[in-house]
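To the team - adenosine-5'-triphosphate complex, inputs and output below.
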Amino acid sequence: MITLIKISWRNIWRNRTRSLVIMIAIVLGLMGGVFSAGMRLGIETQQFKETVETQISHIQLHHPEFIANPEARFRINDGFSIAEQIMNKPWVEVANPRTVFDGMVASANMNAGVRIKGIDPHMEALTTGLDELLEDGTYFEQEGRLPSVIIGQRLARELKAETGSRIILTFQDIHGEIISSSFRVEGVYSIASPSFEERTVFVRASELNEIIGDQEAVTEIALLINNLDDYQQRTAELKELFPDAEVRNWADMAPSLHYSLEFLNQNLAWMLSIIILGVSFGLLNTILMSVLERVNELGVLMAIGMKRVKVFSMVVLETTLLSIVGGSFGLLASFFMVKLLNINGIDMAGAGGAGLEEFGYSSIVFLEVPPNFYFDVGVLVVIFAILASIYPAWKAIRLSPAQAVRQE
Amino acid sequence: MMKTVIKTTNLEKVYNSSVAPVRAVNDVNLEFYEGEFTAIVGPSGSGKTTFLNLIGGLDKPTGGEVTIDGTDISKMKESQLFDFRLRNIGFVFQSYNLIPVLTAKENVSFIMLLQKQPKDQMEKRAQEMLEQVGLSDKINSRPNQLSGGQQQRVAVARALASKPKFVLADEPTANLDTESAFNLLDIMSRLNQEENITLIFSTHDQRVIERAKRVITLVDGAVSKDEKFER
Ligand SMILES: Nc1ncnc2c1ncn2[C@@H]1O[C@H](COP(=O)(O)OP(=O)(O)OP(=O)(O)O)[C@@H](O)[C@H]1O
Ligand SMILES: [Mg+2]
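Output:
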């Protein structure tokens, strides 16, 4: 066995150029595969983070009427206790009750329609990490004469407001009466999605509820679950538990994101298959050439008594070793490629990435490659290499020794 | 009474080529005795290679029998034949004999390795055989560092190292210059005597025929002459 490995190994280096060329093909193939997979996962994670985690959460509960008419009177009855009930489920990471409705914002300069989100600062930080999105000011630390509001950077620009400015929010109370109230801008946040940034303001739920005259008001419960793969099952579970509420998951709320992620996944599977098949055929060709060149030599080996299985294994072993060497270098190169590209991220602005920004995604993409992906791809390459070597190996032993020795 | 190593009875090989069937070996009845040094001669296409392939178990006869040490090998299965060749027959071909990526010594050890002989015994024997063929200074050379004659000598050393019942050499000198050809035949003839190994080689090279003690002439696949010489 050791001799067989030794012979196979040395056989690889008999035609250095050919072996190097095929190894380079493996290396480039792997880099291409890792790049496209890393890109896919990177975009996926990023879009998911920016849309789902910071904006809509995994699952939301509302009053069924609320979706069409986001007003305070379409509240979730017993909202706080429902939120607590959900929070107690072992598969829930956080269940965040909010008072959300639409209203108007006005400064001395202009006014605009906005969605007002009354939140518990601590819960909101756990759910969307709003506290970390602040560009300016503080996160609900001030207890001034006026209640605090945190607004998006774009809105701040439009209103010509900054931290410390006074703005007026106008909305309906629970009886449908119009109320205007002054707020002090305590912080300015920034987020990839321009429309969200323009249209969403955050205030303390406790203060908002006092203004609308309903301390128990909850119009939205946003939750994150521990294992995102279960989202459909968990949605169904919640629907059953709370038949009066409208339960929607991220795929319901952002169908285009959902489909684009699916599409990316399928694209990737095709791309990886094509890369692997291409490399495999290259490998098959190389090994076949090297076998056909050696018909006489292999014939002599079989004539002197080397069994067919051994000759077969020798050819398979050659390919295996070749793919292990090529694969190792390929994974190493891929690893450093990912590390290098991720220092600054990949700016997609030139490659139609500016379009991405308009859809609310940042144009800088970071490759994301889970460590086990390298391992999986490495194993896959070796498996396909072995498959590719079967035909040439069979070719090598197909002839009888007498035929093989005679062959010119 | 000399011991019979190989016996052929009504041996026949017909190739079914597309034009017309070729009777490459035609009703050959021969016996080879232990310690003989035999040359198979004849014009090109007379069936020398085919005959050697049949008695070497590389090819199946279409008629008749090959008996080696009393065993009829024409009835053996493929896999049995592989093993039989490994244990009993040494081969030297015209070319491509050696594994290019192994050294002379590793090549000589190769058959013993396939036979799973103990390592130290194997090494000793390989060394000894390389000395016998005059290549003790080339032990660690790869085939491409050796001349054609030296490569054939390594092949002879390999064929004999495992002490087979007999050694078949199909035109071992075909690619060699006169001096190397004589040199190889001298070595073969000496080893035939010293190791008492039965040796059969084919050639159409008149220069080396006279080294043989027995010369069998084939014409159109049949034996036309079978002569013995005292040398
Ligand atoms: N596989 C085959 N199919 C058909 N005919 C064959 C085959 N192999 C050999 N022959 C024919 O059998 C005959 C004997 O061939 P063989 O090679 O045994 O002769 P040879 O004496 O060894 O010739 P040479 O001196 O050229 O090596 C020739 O006529 C050859 O054409
Ligand atoms: Mg011949």
